[in-house]
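Might you be able to check the backbone structure tokens below? Thank you kindly.
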Amino acid sequence: MQRLWRRISAIFQWKTGSEETPQEKPEDISNLKSVRGIVTYLCTDYGWINESIFFNTDMLCGKVPLNIGTSVIALVEENETTHIQKAIKVKTVTNPVDGTEQSDLDRELCIKCVSSVTQDSIYIDKETSFPVHLFSGEFMPCKGDLLLVEYSMKPGTSNMNIHTVSPLSSQNMDEVCITSTDGKTGVVESCVFFTVDSIQKPSDYTPELYDIVNVVAVDSIQPNCSWRAVSMIPVEMCIDQAL
């Protein structure tokens, strides 16, 4: 009954145009910057980092509670007109503990956005890339995916020496509805983008509008979406496909 109601609700939203407001995409991904700081002000649904970077609490990665003084890393965009800085993703980080090796203390964390992907390399800007084997995720990253990068600076240069790379965060979404499709692309629950060619799925399954599916999604900057599905398992297919 719950699945049926979810499908009916999705169809009603689509026909009445009352879907959730699409999430705003940064104007220029190349202008995003990664900032390390602390939470200096916090309300129920918003806060400030370093007293200068605004964020909404729904931009927080994971379920770690925030407090004033919490160390975070944020992906930040700046309005070119007002110069107001706003975080589009915020992740809590832990400070080094006593006894940490000096080589590890020299390492930093940053958030990077995939700019392009080749068979052997993943680029995080026009000049910086890392080999695919360094990525710890169980999927191939796509343009727009957000990554947590551990790096150090090469002595005497401004070049990064990348040590580890992982997805910024991920979430499991069970029994959710495909709310739109367009050729080989689509959207789940009006907020999770997917492409048929880049998701892990049963070989005999083709996603269709209003299918109920289980999805694994990662942080990503996609058209009107801030998540990208990397895995999709059908729970209940639309009537036409099932027949």
Confidence is low (pLDDT under 50) at residues 10-22.
